Amino acid sequence: MRNYNFFPKLISTGMLSLVLGTLGVQVAEAQSRIFLLETTCVTTRTTNSFYTYWGSENRDIAVGREIYTSIMYIKNGDGFSCRLRDQNSAPKFQTLYLGFGIPDTEDIGEIVLTVYIDGNQLGYQTVSRGEAKTWPIDVKNARSVALEVTCSSRNCPNKLRFFEASLESIPSSPGGRN
């Protein structure tokens, strides 16, 4: 009879370990993003040398008749660069997730968001009033990332607002450290 009880206990223990292991991985993944502005960031482009026209905020905005919470903004004509890692250190992050838009209440026109990786232009996105976009960017081998906002039309919205600006950490291997 003992042999019959051994196998169900073994299966139950195995299933419990599998469930707890999966939950542990999900919790670790959920905690692996940080806000971009928590890294070291400096102004790279400005329309006024006395003021910084980018930063964090926490305000609800309407974009395309949907509500978003703006966590960061960059004023038209400004930009900044953030250090992702020191020159000779191992990569810390794998993806930068950007979510951005121009509120429905802003002036008509377009803004261009340009992204630079290690000083080289990666690409750009053009955004119009009432339009929200997302842009995942591979930063695994990057030392720095820069974001700049410029006007692409005669009438320009005042600021580009971000509802996401997070860096996803490179997952650590079991028993290892990043």
Sum up the structure in keywords.
globular; 48% strand; alpha+beta; Jelly Rolls; 178 residues; 2 domains; single chain; 5-stranded antiparallel beta sheet; 6-stranded antiparallel beta sheet
What features would you describe in this structure?
The chain has 178 residues and is an alpha+beta fold. The protein has two domains: 1-31; 34-169, NPCBM/NEW2 domain (Jelly Rolls), CATH 2.60.120.1060. The protein has one helix at 2-30; strands at residues 33-35, 41-45, 54-63, 66-75, 79-83, 93-101, 110-117, 120-128, 132-138, 144-151, 159-169. The strands form two sheets. Strands 1, 3, 4, 6, 9 and 11 form a six-stranded antiparallel beta sheet that branches. The chain has a five-stranded antiparallel beta sheet with strand order 2-5-10-7-8, with no helix packed on it. It is globular.
Short description:
With 178 residues, the protein is an alpha+beta fold. 16% of the residues lie in helices and 48% in strands.
**DSSP summary, beta strand count:** 11
Return residue spans where pLDDT drops below 50 for at least 5 consecutive residues: 25-30
CATH architecture of the largest domain: Sandwich
Please state the overall shape, judged from the principal axes of the Cα atoms.
globular
Number of domains: 2
CATH topology tier name of the largest domain? Jelly Rolls
Q: Determine Rg (CA atoms, Å).
A: 22 Å
Mean pLDDT across all residues, rounded?
Answer: 84
Instruction: Assign the CATH superfamily of the largest domain.
Output: NPCBM/NEW2 domain
Distance linking N and C termini:
49 Å
How many H/I helical runs?
Answer: 1
Helix fraction bin = 10-25%
Order of helices and strands: HEEEEEEEEEEE
Residue fraction in strands: over 45%
- Kindly name the structural category: alpha+beta
